[in-house]
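P.,

For your records, the input lines for the assembly:
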Amino acid sequence: GEDVEQSLFLSVREGDSSVINCTYTDSSSTYLYWYKQEPGAGLQLLTYIFSNMDMKQDQRLTVLLNKKDKHLSLRIADTQTGDSAIYFCAETFLLDTGRRALTFGSGTRLQVQP
Amino acid sequence: DTEVTQTPKHLVMGMTNKKSLKCEQHMGHRAMYWYKQKAKKPPELMFVYSYEKLSINESVPSRFSPECPNSSLLNLHLHALQPEDSALYLCASSQVSSGGGSPLHFGNGTRLTVT
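Structure tokens returned:
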């Protein structure tokens, strides 16, 4: 898969905003995704954005996409202790078979301090 | 709660054992996936089934054998595994084969330990 990069760790105080950043490489990606993984659990889809959009807002979540720089960010407003988890960005990439698969960034561990 | 159900949640097996992981979804999705996730790492794609046919095999060792009996079920048969195969095995499904606005929905995984 293509390289998707994220910073490894982010610590914020409860009530503050969190911004998790991601850079991707496949310019042909049509959709980009954010997943959340809590300890011992699978991946929960948070939101996704189509590549012709710059921004998408869904309640406390705001996704910003800079296609020119291949930069994706996830902003969580009013961060709560329940938001503590690992956040993965993911992009689709084209395989030799003509199918698309999903590749994940390294994940950002968000720690929310009470 | 996830709409993709995986069993068992935990599995401990010896290197000579044969076991199977199971995955079930009833969302009408026609693509199903197996991912492997090592500790502190992102998930890595193993297999993709599209319309019950194996579409992608990411050069996974033959000791892992997938099976898709119907559009709702996905199995992963395990035989002669190695300790380094210990990981969280995640099943996912989507409406079409990955991409195009059809996000993957994941189960909670099976945590496999090979002794």
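Two observations worth noting. The radius of gyration of chain A is 14 Å. The longest strand of chain A covers residues 85-94.

Regards
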